[in-house]
Amino acid sequence: MKQCLLRENGFTFIEMLLVLSIVMVMSTSIIFVSTSKFERMEEKRFFEQFHLDVQSLQSIALSERKYMSLVFFENGTKYKAKNANEIYFEYEMPKGIRLSQDSYLKEIVFHPNGTVKEFGTLLFETKNGFKNVYVYIGKGRLRYD
User: Fold this and answer.
1) 45 pLDDT above the threshold of 80
2) Which residue stretches, if any, does this entry annotate as coiled coil (predicted)?
3) Rounded-to-10 torsion of CA 79, 131, 97, 91
């Protein structure tokens, strides 16, 4: 009778440690996977927003008939849209994304008719490697790699 009562006390310390270690391994792997997924989503959101900012700058150049430029500064971690004497918007890039020092283009300039002054490649450094943004001659179309 005493043996039956002793067995009903609950889990042993070893059993609890085993279950706790399994739960910790599973939660750690979930956190790691969700963090990398979040970083990829943040990178995608940034490049979509950057594309919209370039299109917005081009439409301002067309509507106001002014030269407009998108300039990167502070070691490639910020960019601003401006004309000769007025800043239209200024944004900071997400942590882990910046314009590379090796980038061919350092700025995008639109003529008053909406065409780009200089075409080429913007090279961005991200946590997942390098990302190319191609600025095409003519109407300033962008493509991502």
Assistant:
1) yes
2) none
3) 20
Reading phi first (left if > 0) and then psi (alpha if -120 to 50, else beta), residue 119 is in: beta
Both tokens of residue 103?
């980038």
Task: State yes or no: pLDDT of 78 exceeds 80.
Answer: yes
Distance CA 109, CA 112 (A): 10
Average pLDDT over residues 118-124: 93
Distance from C-alpha of 93 to C-alpha of 78, rounded to nearest angstrom: 6
Q: How far apart are CA 71 and CA 17, in angstroms?
A: 56
Q: What is the pTM of this model?
A: 0.76
Instruction: For residue 19, give the amino acid letter.
Output: V
Are 101 and 59 contacting, i.e. CB atoms less than 8 angstroms apart? Answer: no
For 97-103, which contacts have Cβ atoms below 8 Å and span 24 or more sequence positions?
A: 97/43, 97/46, 97/124, 97/125, 97/126, 97/127, 98/124, 98/125, 99/72, 99/123, 99/124, 99/125, 100/76, 100/124, 100/125, 100/130, 101/76, 103/76
Instruction: Decide if 133 contacts 93 (C-beta within 8 A).
Output: no
Ramachandran quadrant class, 103 (left: phi over 0; alpha: psi -120 to 50; beta: rest): beta
